[in-house]
Amino acid sequence: MRASAVVTLLLVFFASGTVAAESDGAARPDAPSTAWSGFGKPAAPSTTWSEETIRLLETLPVQDGGRLKPFHTYARYKLLGMNGKTKVEIKYLTDDQEVASYKITATQWLLDTLFTPEVAKLYPIFSVRNDAVLTEIQVGHAGRKKADRYSYAQIEPGREHLRQKMLEIREINPEDRDTVQTQIFELGSSFFSYEGLLDAVAGIASDHVRGREFAIIPPPATREQVETWGTPNELRSAVLRNARGLEREAGMLATLGEVARQPLNVAVVEPKLRELHGAIVARAKARGEYGKIELEVSFYNAAWFHWGLGFFAIGFVLVAFTWLAPRLWPLYWGSMVVTLVAVIVTTIGITQRCIIRGRPPVNTLYETILFVAATAALTALIVEMMNRRRIALSAAAIMGLGGLFLAMKYEALDGGDTFAPLVAVLRTNFWLATHVTTVTLGYSAGLLAAVVAHVYVIGRLFVPAGGDGFFKPLGRMIYGIIAFGLFFSVLGTILGGIWANDSWGRFWGWDPKENGALMIVLWELAMLHARRGRYIGDFGFAMASVFGGIIVVFSWWGVNLLNVGLHTYGFTSGIQLAVWVTYGALFAVLALGGIAWVRMLIEEAARPAETGD
């Protein structure tokens, strides 16, 4: 086919396709009504995509954020960044004026966004945490909750005010912005990014394109020659400029146009999407870029960390019952098995992430949470097998449950792809991999010791004297965990210096993160020396372990809030409150320990007088 013929056919096809899409969308009986319900949301289910279509599209490769990822992952994090969740819940009023709702997955949402944008504009996907944001951009919100979710159609009337506010806020240093300004900027970033998605397919038939999103067209050249994939809009422009050599790409555009014209016609859509998928995948494989796409989809569909969270929760409930029925051994062993299964499931998820990334298990702040949860729980289970007192088993369930819960909250807060390429400073060598892994093991042990020390300190509040049968083994347990953690903290800190020397040309530079690691080492050394020199006993060692938990949290998270130094790549806004709450909780335990210590002194002072009588 001649190039001029390709261009002519495409223009005629898309012009007619746009008209057809508009008329079909207005006439479809099963399309959501654009009339507003009492909730301002569509009053009918979303476009129905077959399971076969969804499974097919999930593995479509998309280039985004510096890497090639599945359509499934692309949709997941686009939605998560806007909505704070990976599903869209749509509430509406029925004909009987009753509230009903349904949920659609991220993949379904993105398919609707791309191929039926007028429908998708009614989905409540923008999370607004403070209605003052809407007041600032002159969008009505009467009768709504202070924090709620809004659709594109509801935000659109304030579009120009939102744009103007963003321009003003952009001139303000991020650290100097107040809460409302920060949230306005976040909403604007999500809103205008979403406009690019709405135009990603529909825009190829229009002269007015507002965004460059959805890079699914692999270039005909090799990966070494051209790394960047093209969006449908970019490809359309390239075809219009010069169609020579782009016949296959023109065919991909034509296929997208046909699907956009009649997305509900399964007989047409599925063969066309299968054709498009096959063409893109074949070229991606030829460029050596498709290898782990299907593995990544299976990783997210398996939901390893959600399963792990569930098993840790069950394990925690079972072990809690063992405190009420200590002689019921089937319950004890059941909690052991369930918690071990939780560790195994979490480890499988971490391992699969390593395979997908092709890197060690700890590279980002998010991955440190997973690693700490798994290793702390595993360490606690090993300790439990040694003494069988249910304390370490309880700690295993608590650490695993808390860690995975924190990981999920962090992922939602950050809203970014957890498989995103690493910053340049982290794409280095063996020394970095070993340093981060070992120093994180040190974090894990330090936190585990702090959790076990909570039991000791709070227990002494109720039993100031005596109880050696309970407290002595507990003291030895804390001592062993600290010694274990010190080894990895020292090793990890030294390996970090070797890496820094290799990457930055200096072994030590008093960077905040380096100082935090050193603080852990020095504090744990001081604890062990004080115990060895009999300056403190088991109670003092437990109190020091709780304070050590504060140091670990500061080193692990607190220094990131400073947003200075060479380790600022780990900074995440929005975690300040959680960090300060953690500090407050740990200091509260120390205060309770102070009360217990005073009671111990009073009892000790009273004991000789009682003996004399």
Describe the model:
There is one protein chain. The protein contains 22 helices and 6 strands. It has helices at 3-27, 51-58, 71-83, 106-115, 117-120, 132-136, 152-155, 159-170, 179-202, 232-241, 247-261, 266-286, 293-302, 304-324, 329-357, 365-387, 391-414, 430-462, 468-504, 512-532, 538-562, 576-612, and strands at 61-64, 67-70, 87-93, 99-105, 124-128, 148-151. The strands form 3 sheets. It has a two-stranded antiparallel ribbon with strand order 1-2. Strands 3-4 form a two-stranded antiparallel sheet. It has a two-stranded antiparallel ribbon with strand order 5-6. Helix 4 packs across helix 9 (179-202).
Let me know the average pLDDT.
84
Number of strands: 6
How are strands sequenced across the largest beta sheet?
1-2
Query: Radius of gyration over alpha carbons?
Result: 29 Å
End-to-end separation in angstroms reads: 113 Å
Q: In percent, how much strand structure appears in the residues?
A: 5-15%
Major sheet attributes = 2 strands, antiparallel
DSSP helix fraction: 55-70%
How many helices? The count is 22
What structural class is derived from the secondary structure elements?
Answer: mainly alpha
Q: Helix and strand succession?
A: HHEEHEEHHEHEHHHHHHHHHHHHHHHH
User: Which regions have little confidence, pLDDT < 50, spanning 5+ residues?
Assistant: 1-41
Shape: elongated
